Amino acid sequence: MTHQTGPGTEAPVGGAAVTPSNTVAPVPTPPPDPGAALSLRGLWKRFGQKIAVRALDLDVPVGSFYGLVGPNGAGKTTTLSMATGLLRPDAGTVHVRGTDLWAHPVEAKATLGILPDGVRLFDRLTGLQLVTYAGLLRGMDRDTVADRARSLLAAMDLAADANTYVVDYSAGMTKKIALASAMIHAPRALVLDEPFEAVDPVSAANIRDILADYVTGGGTVIVSSHVMDLVQRMCDHVAIVGAGQVLAAGTVDQVRGDQTLEDRFVDLVGGRTRAEGLEWLRTS
């Protein structure tokens, strides 16, 4: 279930709600859902004069395959960055299975696996070294890391390239090794920002299968994308984001109704224009 707060209510990190002086009355923000994999309340983020995220509320159910969709500049990456502790919100709260992310960051982040947008890796390490390093950073013992790294490389079809430097990996291989690094500590939830961008169809299919198995095993996946068909086939829940706010959220069937997800998305986000003045392109 998703709740919307009005644009006049800001809840500072770690504090009570405040109301900007140019508003009449605040709209109360509902409490976070302690049973949700992620529960976002009243998130705000401004960059200069641009408000990237405004009063955003969202609950991601445990065990769901959750798609976050929106046009470029909608606030998806900013939202996920705040939801995972990579970016501090100007206001609002994030709870990971009931744990306040900003009050208890070590505890909350230990349960998350993150694949940020435009991820930068230590690409002068081999694939095996990178995944091993990620496990050791999580405080895991070397034997467990070695076993899991081998299993993950095999699952990602990267065993033959385990000793190849990441800088020499293709885009699809890079996404897969980054995903392996995010999964090495067996997180309870994976937060993936555009995991299929610049990935070939075979690699994308392999990644989808791995994520589907992970959800079947009790994990939660939150994935951002602007490819509606992919989200419609892959996810069981979806939130449509536009102008930094949640426009609709729920199961895929609830959100799309009797339309395709793409048509519902366009209806909510708007922006479709008719191409006029291009008659000169006609060849007959």
UniProtKB/TrEMBL annotation:
It is found in: Cell membrane. It is a peripheral membrane protein. The keyword Nucleotide-binding applies. Gene3D superfamilies: P-loop containing nucleotide triphosphate hydrolases (3.40.50.300). The keyword rRNA-binding does not apply. Pfam families: ABC_tran. GO terms for molecular function: ATP binding. Residues 1-31 are annotated as: Disordered. It comes from the Bacteria. Keywords: Antibiotic resistance, ATP-binding, Nucleotide-binding, Transport. InterPro entries: AAA+_ATPase (IPR003593), ABC_transporter-like_ATP-bd (IPR003439), ABC_transporter_ATP-binding (IPR050763), P-loop_NTPase (IPR027417). PANTHER family: ABC TRANSPORTER ATP-BINDING PROTEIN, DOXORUBICIN RESISTANCE ATP-BINDING PROTEIN DRRA. This is ABC transporter ATP-binding protein. It comes from Myceligenerans indicum.
